[in-house]
Amino acid sequence: MNKRKRDKGNFWAIAALTIIALGASPAVLAQTVVPITVLPLGNSITHGGVGGFPSYRRDLWFLLANAGYAMDFIGSHTTYPYDPIPVPPAQLDFDLDHEGHSGWKVDELEANIEGWLQGYDAAAGADIDVDIALIHAGTNDLINEGNNQTTIDSTLIEMGGLIAKLRADNPNIIILLAKIIPGTNLNTAPFNTALENWVPSQNNTENPDIIVIDHANGYVPATDNFDSLHPNNLGEAKMATAWFNGITSFLTAGNQCGPESECALFVLHREAYGITRVRVLPVNVVVGVFEIG
User: Fold this and answer.
1) Does 265 fall in a domain?
2) What is the pLDDT of residues 237-279, one digit of tens each?
3) CA atoms in the 13 A half-sphere facing the CB of 37
4) Assigned domain for 122 exists
5) Distance (Å, rounded) from C-alpha 158 to C-alpha 107?
6) What is the CATH number of the domain that holds 157?
7) 160-186 per-residue burial string, b: 16 or more CB within 10 A, e: under 16
8) SS3 136
9) Is residue 92 assigned to a domain?
10) What is the model's pTM?
11) How many separate domains does the chain show?
């Protein structure tokens, strides 16, 4: 996250307080009006810019926005690496914050995540919880498999460390973990199978379960990649749809006010853990919200 993000100020700010009737007795339950924070985390596939394509993040942002969800992408990066084919300025029209690092392996993400999380708090001047993390990582580990003792097993150990640090910062974080897209000359199937088999060992009674998002299913490198590894517009759209379906499985709409007031209330459910967090679409109306847990 950068200072620009927290200067959005009036865009997200809404004062919301209401008396909500519970049976015959009204009660003020809470005052919470902030967007759901989403951390896109990974390597160059998350970063984007290769071939002039802005990454899945743009398509995902518009899928969420057009569905009426108030989302705040966070991260320390907003720009694209130099590429002979730059991302068109017209496609820089979404929330650009992300934590995609070109060429990075999972151990590097793990080594830096705590500093990034602290940086988000410092930039905002407040404790910023990541509500949802989108992790697409492991491609560079596979490319380097066999070098410096990098193996699928070592990568999963590092992935476990990364997830543990995210959970230490916010025990209620929802982790959406990718089965990574295949490359033209990179077989990701062994890694994806190992990852899917490994995930249950990371679930516990203290945190929401990790949700595996299958980006490999239906992804065809010959038509969906710009080069051997990075998605083109077709591949980005497929990735965005897979992320969107995973995110929205946690979101339910309620109190949609219609076109005149244009307000909408969306609830992030973690019912198995006794937590329901409420976020509201930013509009110039007063909307009642509540939080339990």
Assistant:
1) no
2) 999 999 999 988 877 554 333 443 334 444 454 444 344 444 4
3) 24
4) yes
5) 5
6) 3.40.50.1110
7) bbbbebbbebbebbbbbbbbbbbbeeb
8) strand
9) yes
10) 0.79
11) 1
